[in-house]
């Protein structure tokens, strides 16, 4: 234990800091797909208001409450618009879910078929619907 506390090993606080930094980097990668002009800087904290905020710098809300005189919910994003702090319309979790829906293959997303549809995955459902639209003359191949 003495070696851990006084040796060259990393302290617990520095490990937690690295986890926070990596978490923000991952969130920023997701965030920048939806808002390429904005940068997710850090977690928002009521006891840390940036002194000289830069336009399009944003902060992730870690828990529901009041931060910087704004009523916020967990996973919302607060952004400096050059004049005031604003809450962006989508939470990071909503942005992530929307992006994931585009990256998953349609043939592995299951669905409960509606009446008249036999497909059990999105790709097959699209093919069935397309075939009907072509056969009915709504789409000309």
Question: What can you see in these coordinates?
Answer:
The chain is an alpha+beta fold. It has two domains: 2-97, no CATH class; 106-135, no CATH class. It has helices at residues 2-6, 12-34, 92-103, 122-135, and strands at residues 39-43, 57-60, 65-67, 70-72, 77-80, 85-87. The strands form two sheets. The protein has a four-stranded mixed beta sheet with strand order 1-2-5-6. It has a two-stranded antiparallel sheet with strand order 3-4. Helix 2 (12-34) packs across helix 3 (92-103). Mean pLDDT is 76; it is low at 1-5 and 10-19.
What is the number of domains? 2
Order of secondary-structure elements: HHEEEEEEHH
Mean pLDDT: 76
Total strand count, please? 6
Assign a percent range to the helix content: 25-40%
Broad structural category: alpha+beta
β-sheet strand percentage: 15-25%
Topology (SSEs and partners):
Blueprint: H1 2-6, H2 12-34, E1 39-43, E2 57-60, E3 65-67, E4 70-72, E5 77-80, E6 85-87, H3 92-103, H4 122-135
Parallel strand pairs: 1-2
Antiparallel strand pairs: 2-5, 3-4, 5-6
Brief overview:
The chain contains four helices and six strands; from the N terminus they run H-H-E-E-E-E-E-E-H-H. It is of the alpha+beta class.
Provide keyphrases for this structure:
141 residues, alpha+beta, 2 domains, 4-stranded mixed β-sheet, two-stranded antiparallel ribbon, 6 strands
